[in-house]
Amino acid sequence: MNGAIGWARGSGEFAEERGLRRGEWYKVLEDQGAGWLVLDVNDVHVRITRDYLVVRRSQPKTWSVVRLTPAQGADETHRMYLVCPGCHTRQHLTGRPKESECPKCRKTYPVDWSDRA
Question: What angle do CA 64, 70, 71 make, to 5 degrees?
Answer without folding.
Answer: 100
